[in-house]
Amino acid sequence: MISWAPQALKDLNEIVAYLEQFDEEVADAVESAILQQIEWLEQHSMAGSRVEGMPLDYKLGYAIKQKFKIYYRVKGVASIKVIMIRRSERLPPKPKDITKRDLT
């Protein structure tokens, strides 16, 4: 099961809206690739990297050749909560920012 922090959905929508300004097909392909990776992470939840400074159930996955970071929390067997989606170029979020988003 995949659950979403409200901000994670906003992140995805902002990424897609930005790309749509330039190329709708690219925007659709990026959205699809991110969603496919999230579905894969649901089934392979422990495959993500550990998020420094966070409990072990917080993980980091990547989409599209590591261009996007997917921060998520393992909630159980085949169950994750997507907390944040960011471009890889951005600085890593502070642990308190991840936790804050997880509580929403």
Could you characterize what this model shows?
The chain is of the alpha+beta class. It has one domain (2-102): RelE-like (YaeB-like fold), CATH 3.30.2310. Helix content is 41%, strand content 28%. The protein is built from three helices and five strands, in the order E-H-H-E-E-E-E-H. It has helices at 6-20, 24-43, 95-102; strands at 2-4, 49-50, 58-63, 68-76, 79-87. The chain has a five-stranded mixed sheet, with helices on both faces. A hairpin with a 2-residue loop joins strand 4 (68-76) and strand 5. Helix 1 runs antiparallel to helix 2. It is globular and about 40 Å long. It starts with a strand and ends with a helix. The mean pLDDT is 92.
Helix content: 40-55%
The unreliable regions are: none
Tell me the β content.
Answer: 25-35%
CATH architecture: 2-Layer Sandwich
Bulk shape: globular
Give the biggest sheet. 5 strands, mixed
